[in-house]
Design brief:
There is one protein chain. The radius of gyration is 31 Å and the shape is globular. It has six domains: 2-202, Hypothetical protein af1432 (Orthogonal Bundle), CATH 1.10.3210.10; 208-340, Beta Polymerase, domain 2 (2-Layer Sandwich); 391-485, Ubiquitin-like (UB roll); 489-537, no CATH class; 569-627, no CATH class; 634-709, Alpha-Beta Plaits (2-Layer Sandwich), CATH 3.30.70.260. The chain has 736 residues and is of the alpha+beta class. Helices cover 46% and strands 15% of the residues. The strands form six sheets. Strands 1, 2, 3, 4, 5 and 6 form a six-stranded mixed β-sheet that branches. A four-stranded mixed β-sheet has the order 13-15-14-16, with no helix packed on it. It has a four-stranded antiparallel β-sheet with strand order 19-20-18-21. Helix 2 (16-32) runs parallel beside helix 4.
């Protein structure tokens, strides 16, 4: 019965002579799988049969359907591939072999699968894709049916498979443009990974379903009448919003402080017309009927998405005050939108290859070429996830050539995409004729001009600093690391020592270098310093590691706090005691700390290297303490050395405010006419945020150095320029 449904579906697009091989494959599979059962209790033959039905829905060729029916035979029956080749020919045997090999790889990291093997497995998958995409079509269909029957597996296997599907297979279906598979893979994965949220969203969607359906039907009827007036033939239907996409939208809205009720594309129409001009005519009718919402029109006809998707998207205020999203495309575009590159697959004898299809999978072959250069599997894995599985932007060279890059790419990413040497020699960039910073994020349609040095030069290690945002693609990061790796080891060790000492000095941290090396699993200090020098280990990673070791859980600041922190420190071996942050050394989470028992104010918390603690006579009053969890902010004194110029204070306070860090007070010291010293008190959440903000201050024009200081640090005499920016006042340097 099930096989007759498969034949019926396949006969809609395949000639009768092509169905013969499908029938033969089914009979062969039924014979080999006879008596085998799945964990669900169904006959094993049900799985390859349903896999083939999914592919028939994508209108895949007869060889793909036959391979889907046969794909589990080698692994589950031990039949050699050569026997399948002898019966069905080399093409089908190759598809079965490729699918069998992919079935043995795991693409998520578990206790039994290291990141190295994970990346190697993904590399095998992409190589198989580059050779014959039909292997991956079969694998996607195989995974979809497995996800539909996932409840038969143990809980642990369910979670591993769901995570793998959400991280790899669903994005892969998206990149190949196969929407029909993508949304099902996402929803099924989400159902197992976050069942509570899945049910909540399903309930929210179902609550207003009747009212929404009534609204959609009214809108369709009204729009159909308007199309008839201008003689436009169109199919109009409601477009369902799937649960995982609603979850993603809710997360974005929550970050903006908006509510589920404001998600207007829960209400959506799809309009299918005959031709490209009809698409634009339809938009004109829609906009004349209903008021378009600002900044809600996207033209994916003129600039298709990387996976080949084409449509016009608009959002309007329909039937009063209800937002409504409308997608307009031709029927052919709709077929491509549902089935992606599978809609362009051709394997007819003597037929010329579809060049549009070739263009759409060029990204895959280009990726394989790039990553032949990569030695580290982890770099490869990072690159795949960032350079394939995210949306793209399309930009132009000055000569009008189009380049596609991952969304969030910068001018430096663009330079490295054009040519590695251009990236190394880049000293500036213009976007649409105007100079921009290296951390400018490219937008669709930007024209990029790279300004390069004439002589040979290399990249800066700052380009790898994630806080600065200069490069965001793994391709550019890899090229930069490779350049530094080629430098002399002695130079890298010395450079690493300078970077490390500067960072520790800047943050006022006293830690042995060897201890840091061991934190990063380096037995040799020189190896660790060389890694810092060539960019393998960044200053940001060092700060995060230190903060994690000392604090374990960095507090998140949500409200401004006072100078005291009554619940942020645990006094070991003692019940609840009042604690106060010492104003002499201002410890923050991540610092090594110690407590001092006062006579009247509980326990005062100092940094272990505080000068007052070292000179304390009554050592018995010192007690061990550790950081707890709190939403309190910690004041830190910072000294900024800079050239004296107009606007310096404004620029420094602006970069601090951009990170929502409060400046409790600011003091300006007397300068020598050229240089000047600023003393700031910043309220931060810990070492990680402090390191980030100090780097940003150091990048301000004219700033020479930025360092953390204690209240007991000698200062220059200050003019009467104290500026309590928030009504706060300067703290004295009292002991304990």
């Amino acid at each position: 019965m099930e096989f007759s449904k498969l034949l019926e579906k396949a006969s809609e697009y395949l000639p009768p002579e092509k169905l013969t091989v499908v029938e033969e494959a089914y009979k062969f599979a039924a014979e080999k799988h006879e008596g085998q059962m799945r964990l669900s209790g169904d006959p094993y033959l049900e799985h390859p049969l349903q896999t083939a039905r999914i592919l028939a829905g994508l209108q895949l060729d007869a060889s793909s359907l036959a391979a889907a029916l046969l794909h589990d035979i080698p692994e589950d029956t031990g039949l050699p591939i050569k026997d399948i080749e002898a019966k069905f020919g080399p093409e089908i045997a190759k598809l079965v072999d490729g699918t069998t090999k992919l079935g043995k790889v795991s693409l998520v990291t578990t206790d039994a699968v290291t990141g190295e093997s994970q990346a190697e497995n993904l590399r095998k998958m992409l190589v198989a894709m580059a050779e014959d995409l039909r292997v991956v079509f079969i694998k996607l269909a195989d995974r979809l049916h497995n996800m539909r029957t996932l409840d038969a597996l143990p809980k642990e296997r369910q979670l591993v498979n769901a995570q793998e599907t959400l991280e790899i297979y669903a994005p892969l279906a998206h990149r190949l443009g196969i929407w029909e598979l993508k949304w099902q893979l996402e929803d099924l994965s989400f159902q197992y990974l976050n069942p509570r949220q899945y049910q909540n969203i399903a309930r929210l969607v179902d609550t207003g379903r009747a009212q929404r359906e009534k609204f959609i039907n009214r809108a369709i009827e009204l729009l159909r009448k308007e199309f008839e007036k201008v003689g436009l033939v169109a199919d109009i239907s409601g477009r369902p919003k799937h649960i995982y996409s609603i979850h993603q939208k809710m997360e974005r809205y929550a970050a903006m402080g908006r509510h589920f009720d404001e998600i207007h594309d829960l209400l959506a129409l799809r309009v299918l017309v005959d031709s490209l001009p009809d698409c634009y005519s339809a938009v004109g009718v829609i906009h004349s009927l209903w008021h378009p919402l600002p900044d809600a029109f996207d033209d994916y006809l003129a600039s298709p998405k990387p996976n080949g998707y084409q449509a016009l998207h608009t959002a309007v205020m329909a039937l009063g005050t209800t937002p409504l999203e409308v997608q307009i495309r031709t029927r052919e575009m709709h077929h491509v939108a549902e089935y992606g590159v599978a809609a362009h697959w051709r394997y007819k004898e003597g037929e010329k290859r579809d060049m549009q299809f070739e263009d759409r999978v060029a990204w895959l072959r280009q990726l394989i070429e790039w990553h032949r250069e990569l030695a580290g599997a982890e770099e490869f894995l990072e690159s795949v996830k960032t350079d394939i599985f995210i949306d793209q932007v399309f930009v132009y060279t000055p000569k009008g050539e189009i380049k596609d890059l991952p969304r969030g790419s910068t001018p430096l990413d663009f330079a490295y995409r054009v040519h590695t040497d251009l990236g190394h020699r880049c000293v500036g960039a213009k976007v649409n004729g105007k100079l921009v910073h290296f951390n400018y994020q490219l937008k669709n349609g930007d024209v990029i001009e790279i300004i390069s040095a004439k002589g040979s030069r290399g990249p800066s290690l700052d380009w790898l600093n994630p806080n600065l945002g200069y490069v965001n693609t793994s391709h550019a990061k890899t090229k930069i690391r490779q350049w530094f790796n080629k430098q002399e080891r002695t130079e890298n060790i010395e450079r690493g020592r300078q970077i490390l000492d500067k960072e520790l000095r800047r943050l006022g941290i006293k830690t042995e270098r060897q201890v840091l090396a061991e934190l990063f699993a380096y037995s040799s200090l020189d190896d660790f310093l060389a890694a810092v020098g060539n960019g393998t280990v960044t200053a940001h990673q060092i700060v995060v590691k230190l903060a994690a070791e000392e604090e374990k859980e960095i507090p998140v600041a949500t409200v401004a706090s006072s100078r005291t922190a009554p619940s942020t420190v645990k006094v070991l071996g003692v019940g609840d005691l009042v604690t106060n942050i010492a104003p002499c050394c201002h410890p923050v989470p991540g610092d090594k700390i110690i407590g001092y028992i006062t006579r009247s104010r509980g326990v005062t918390i100092h940094r272990q290297d505080c000068r007052n603690i070292h000179h304390e006579d009554e050592q018995e009053r010192l007690i061990p303490v550790e950081w707890g969890h709190s939403d309190v902010l910690y004041p830190v004194n910072v000294q900024v050395e800079a050239w004296d110029r107009v606007g310096l204070m404004r620029d420094v306070t602006t970069v601090v405010a951009e990170d929502k860090v409060n400046i409790a007070s600011a003091n300006l010291a007397d300068g020598d006419g050229h240089n000047i010293t600023l003393y700031l008190t910043l309220e931060t959440t810990g070492l990680a945020q402090l390191s980030h903000i100090l780097k940003k201050i150091e990048a301000v024009k004219g700033v020479l150095s930025v360092n953390r200081i204690g209240d007991d640090t000698p200062r220059q005499s200050t003019a009467d320029t104290s500026v309590p920016l928030t009504g706060g006042k300067d703290t004295g340097s009292s002991k304990k």
